[in-house]
Amino acid sequence: MSFRKRNIGLSAGVDRASALNSTAQPQQAAAAPETNPGIRPSPDDGRPTTSTGSRSLDNLLAGHGGLPIGKTLLIEENGTTDFAGALLRYYAAEGVVQDQKVHVVGMPEQWGRSLPGLIGPADVADEKPAKRKGERMKIAWRYERLGEFGAGVAGSRGKP
After folding, report:
1. CA–CA separation, 52 vs 94, rounded Å?
2. pTM exceeds 0.90 for this model
3. Shortest CA distance to 88 belongs to which of 62, 68, 114?
4. Which of 134, 135, 136 has its CA nearest to residue 144?
5. Which residues are CB-neighbours of 139 under 8 A, at least 6 positions away?
């Protein structure tokens, strides 16, 4: 016997039988092209969604691959961790990266400067390759003459 999970919205004014019949019919996504940056259709039902800035949280949100537009996410913390604050910073940073307007109320200006950003390519970050080639490691100076690990060990052995 197998069971299927049904996502049924709860409301006060609709009786249960009509809610089951209305959700049993397939919903069709709007064919209008997305014009807002950072908004994509949900892989589950085609609803417009946006990323929360955390890929693992996006995957947990009912298969939508993000937070559906017009929905709210409330996170309650146990203890003294700042997990909700970290998620808020990731969500705001995702909006900045997607060129959306981000409104922050009640936070100091420094909060906006501490948002995570994009990481550039690795070759751009390493701007001093010529200087590093000239430097030698003083700690491992005696290993310099050994060459590659395992490179001549098998060939140098004579056959008995």
Report:
1. 7
2. no
3. 114
4. 136
5. none
Give yes or no for a contact between 98 and 75, defined as CB atoms under 8 angstroms apart. no
Contact 88, 104 (CB under 8 A): no
Distance CA 75, CA 57 (A): 11
Residue carrying the six token digits 């014009």: 35
Give the pLDDT of the chain (160 residues) as one tens digit per residue: 555 555 544 444 445 455 455 555 555 555 555 467 888 888 888 889 888 888 888 888 877 788 888 888 888 877 788 888 888 888 888 888 888 888 888 888 888 888 888 777 655 555 555 555 556 555 566 666 666 655 555 544 455 5
Query: How far is it, in rounded angstroms, from Cα 44 to Cα 64?
Result: 6
Gyration radius (Cα) of the chain, Å: 27
Q: Copy the structure tokens of residue 89.
A: 């910073």
